[in-house]
Amino acid sequence: MTVPPSELAYVPFVSVENMMRLTHHVGIETFLKELAAFIEADFKRWPDFDKTPRVAAHVPGGVIELMPTADKTLYSFKYVNGHPKNTKTGHQTVTAFGVLSEVLNGYPVLLSEMTVLTALRTAATSALAATYLAPRDAATMAMIGNGAQCEFQAMAFRALCGINTLRLYDIDARATEKASRNLTAQGFEVVACTSAERAVEGADVITTCTADKQYATILTDNMVGAGQHINAIGGDCPGKTELHRDILLRSDIFVEYPEQTRIEGEIQSLDKDHPVTELWQVMRGEAAGRRDQRQVTLFDSVGFAIEDFSALRYVREKVNGTAFSQPLDLLADPDDPRDLFGMLVRSVA
Ligand SMILES: NC(=O)c1ccc[n+]([C@@H]2O[C@H](COP(=O)([O-])OP(=O)(O)OC[C@H]3O[C@@H](n4cnc5c(N)ncnc54)[C@H](O)[C@@H]3O)[C@@H](O)[C@H]2O)c1
């Protein structure tokens, strides 16, 4: 006789549908602000975490990565892929899911979709970094690459930095049309541009968010002026970058976890000891962020496991006691913990 699973068998699961319902319930900009606060709180206790560069399997056409981290009470990992050509076959470039577990007994306490959540956490991290690095009173952002991440970035920069004017460019005009439509509906001032050069004109912040598995040059040195902040999202793999090296040489460069960024970020083209500043130290007041109005600042974002840990921690808190998660029969739970086999045999008796 099949016995129904006991309470220990169940793990709260947040589906894509529930993640979207939760985001609307909270409000997209409130979600981004609250999530950024969780990320900032975790960055400020950086030394508490186990850290390692993510484990990347480079496969034809893309990469599949595992991103683990832990503090003394919780462990998390994210599974994520990056396949720039996927959109041509109707697939997402990036998909993800993740798990949060109790360190005490290793039991998962949350399983969640993380495709939507990764877009939200990437945007929250970028905008949070910009609160320390972008020019004060920044009002206009250029966005080069108008795919899946684009609108999330825009929403986060408005929520955290007050930016409401966007200058969009993508090599595929349909992507710019899509982003213009979505962002105009959200109340942004949107200027669709016909080249990256036009897009960066008069921008206080430049976000590069393109997907291409190659050393691309989305920005050349002449396109970046004094005082601008660059939020470089798309260069996040060996052999996949967006900025001309000369820009890096005259920027103050801020990174998440140098050990990972030196492998995957824009700085992979620089000497191994080229100076970079870790964002967590800026957040703790131990290193300077933006110092003056003429400085070019660069957030060389690759995405780090602690951002996912914070996002899962935030979602766990939000869904607790709500209908935004569903119990998933994920863990075998025999009456006698050592009689796993007996449980299997009895299941058909
Ligand atoms: N740093 C992070 O934490 C993080 C997180 C998620 C995704 N990413 C990266 O961000 C990038 C964008 O992700 P996405 O999900 O939006 O991808 P996407 O495929 O949905 O969109 C990418 C867009 O870039 C455009 N593009 C490609 N080459 C271009 C060029 N030379 N000039 C202008 N536009 C160009 C494409 O036409 C497409 O519209 C990817 O490279 C992804 O790996 C980084």
| Terminal-residue CA separation | 5 Å
Parts with pLDDT < 50 across at least 5 consecutive residues = none
Biggest β-sheet: count, sense, barrel? 8 strands, parallel
> How much is the average pLDDT?
96
Structural class: alpha/beta
- The geometry reads as globular
What's the CATH C level of the largest domain? Alpha Beta
Strand order within the widest beta sheet = 9-8-7-10-12-16-14-15
Here the CATH topology of the largest domain equals Rossmann fold
Measured as a percent range, the helix fraction is 25-40%
Number of DSSP strands?
17
What is the count of structural domains? Answer: 2
Q: Identify every distinct bound molecule in the structure, by name, code or SMILES.
A: nicotinamide-adenine-dinucleotide
CATH structural architecture of the largest domain? 3-Layer(aba) Sandwich
Q: Work out the strand percent.
A: 15-25%
Q: Superfamily at the CATH H level of the largest domain?
A: NAD(P)-binding Rossmann-like Domain
Order of helices and strands: EHHEEEEEHEHEHEHEEEEHEHEHEHEH
Rg, Å, rounded: 21 Å
Task: List the defining traits of the structure above.
ODC_N; 24% strand; Rossmann fold; binds nicotinamide-adenine-dinucleotide; eight-stranded parallel beta sheet; alpha/beta; 2 domains; 349 residues; 11 helices; ODC_Mu_crystall; NAD(P)-bd_dom_sf; 17 strands; seven-stranded mixed beta sheet; lyase; ornithine cyclodeaminase, domain 1
